[in-house]
Known about the structure:
binds iron/sulfur cluster
Amino acid sequence: xxxxxxxxxxxxxxxxxxxxxxxxxxxxxxxxxxxxxxxxxxxxxxxxxxxxxxxxxxxxxxxxxxxxxxxxxxxxxxxxxxxxxxxxxxxxxxxxxxxxxxxxxxxxxxxxxxxxxxxxxxxxxxxxxxxxxxxxxxxxxxxxxxxxxxxxxxxxxxxxxxxxxxxxxxxxxxxxxxxxxxxxxxxxxxxxxxxxxxxxxxxxxxxxxxxxxxxxxxxxxxxxxxxxxxxxxxxxxxxxxxxxxxxxxxxxxxxxxxxxxxxxxxxxxxxxxxxxxxxxxxxxxxxxxxxxxxxxxxxxxxxxxxxxxxxxxxxxxxxxxxxxxxxxxxxxxx
Length: 334
Ligand code: SF4
């Protein structure tokens, strides 16, 4: 076995730098995220950037009724904590501003919401999901201030580093917006977790793997990997039903993730290895509903290949210029 003992020890037997392990080490407790759904919307749906949203986004959950005021941050966190305590014997929590674009409001409103979360007993950190084009300077200053008081992650959707794909999925931003946001976030010394989707049509396997190099070069702190999956009532579902969206088999995805991890810097924390999908709204692939099964297959393949995160990572990559790539989505119906 070639897996370095130092990494085995540092990662507690796992072959990648897992977020769960990081939380366990930092807080010496079982820490779970509680997802929050507030009355944010998204500039990619309300017309500021685009309408209709990303083609994979579940717009059925964005019907006007969905904009009705939800329960408060406090109520959602208290309810979530009880449920997760029961299910996982969780001891501490991270408030996860998850649905929609959680920095798409005036900074005074954001400050109130974030501070409300941090005032709840048991909340030891905060995680905020957003888009690269929704980070004005005053919002970043607020996050920088909060990060001095708590364990803070900014979750930034990139999804693909290829502008032709971002156009195809109607993201409403390009790679250059992401690179610019990362630069400004890093100036404040904030932690960034990047969301990626692997499996977009029109991207080769090598192109998907090259995204790991981009994350290394940009000094990203964490990554969430999702397999492309099709959700009911989305434009992607229509394209899928027309036969225009080939999806990975589970084995193909597992092999790709292992290759991706090999190239990824061992310092990048892996928050997620596959998409979170629910049976009731999933069209395909059915295998991705069994998240634990996918994770176990990845662990087994890492061991089977006697490989690990960062095995082929080279520090030289860090000095390479960041490539921004654009072009048409060849072979993909728009
Ligand atoms: S940016 Fe997020 S919330 Fe907005 S349309 Fe895309 S996936 Fe949906």
